[in-house]
Specification:
This protein has an 8-stranded mixed sheet with strand order 2-1-3-4-6-5-8-7, with helices on both faces. Helix 9 links the parallel strand 7 and strand 8. The protein is of the alpha/beta class. The chain is built from 11 helices and 8 strands. The chain folds into 2 domains: about 260 residues, Thiamin diphosphate (ThDP)-binding fold, Pyr/PP domains (Rossmann fold); about 30 residues, no CATH class.
Length: about 290
């Protein structure tokens, strides 16, 4: 294990994030997770879309792709199916993942692909100079909503659980140790795992470090991670803080299902069953001819 994970996984390019951006913490936590698991740089695939957070693969010497806006998940699924021997991590933002990429997110979670998705949630579009995003609160005064955003915020943790993700976590970028713990748990999980990282934008929203005082670690009070009803209730509580400055923000492992089979294993079962039934492609095609039970 390296004493300097950042050097082991860095390609030498300096991140283009603003000085003091909370995203540096997530990058550091991620590379330390790789290092602790002794994952070689060429032994992990890091894929992103477009946005400040999606620049992350550009600073790593790992395998990876910087793809189109909202499309990191289709690329990640293809990478996972092509190379099931190495883990796939998606670095994305709330705008990238939940606006143009929302349909991909829902169905990737539903099919339970073995992918780890890290969503840097700053609740706005920062790279394009402060537009309201799907997770921005009602009344948010972005550059295109000077009178305040009208639509309700989308809750990514709720959406993930409802869509079928088998693991959902939340962390805050201002607490590196906890963020690292959540990313590590997601990497170790077999199936679709989401880590929502609350990461306020320094440039447009200030540091907001006082948000740390409102974090409520679910594991400290015995939350049952496999209780779906309880998980949905805890996921929903995060936006109480928009209307109540004293409301706590639940973090930690919100949901984890041990009974959901990931897509990779489902495919393996189908292949095993049908390999025993057919000895050649011709036999499979012969079974599909009209009149053979169709």
């Amino acid at each position: 294990m390296s004493n300097r994970p950042h050097e082991r996984y860095s390609n030498g390019r300096k991140p283009s994030w603003c000085s003091g951006c909370s995203y540096f913490t997530v990058l550091s936590a991620l590379t330390e997770c790789f290092d602790e698991r002794d994952i070689a740089p060429e032994g992990v695939n890091v894929i992103s879309g477009i946005g400040c957070s999606s620049r992350l693969p550009l600073f790593l010497n790992c395998l990876g792709m910087h793809t189109l806006h909202g499309r990191p998940l289709p690329a990640a699924i293809g990478a996972r199916l092509a190379r099931p021997d190495i883990p796939v991590v998606v670095a994305t933002g709330d705008g990238d993942l939940l606006s143009i990429g929302a349909a991909h997110f829902v169905h990737a979670a539903r099919k339970n692909f073995d992918i780890t998705v890290i969503c840097f949630d700053n609740r706005m579009y920062a790279m394009t100079k402060n537009q309201a995003s799907p997770t921005s609160p009602v009344g948010y005064k972005g550059s295109l909503t000077p009178y305040g955003k009208l639509s309700a915020p989308l809750n990514i943790a709720e959406l993930a659980i409802g869509s079928g993700a088998s693991m959902v976590c939340r962390a805050c970028a201002y607490d590196k140790a906890h963020t690292k713990k959540m990313i590590g748990a997601a990497l170790d999980h077999r199936g679709f795992s989401l880590v929502e990282v609350i990461a306020p934008c320094r440039t447009f929203n200030g540091q907001q470090r006082e948000i740390l005082e409102r974090m409520d670690d679910l594991q400290d009070r015995g939350h049952e991670v496999d209780n779906r009803e309880s998980a949905m209730r805890e996921a929903a509580r995060v936006y109480d803080s928009d209307n109540n400055p004293k409301a706590v923000i639940p973090i930690g492992v919100i949901w984890k299902s041990g009974g959901m089979i990931c897509f990779d294993d489902q495919v393996g079962r189908v292949l095993d069953e049908n390999t025993r039934k057919h000895s050649s492609v011709d036999e499979i095609l012969d079974d599909l001819k009209p009149g053979r039970g169709w």
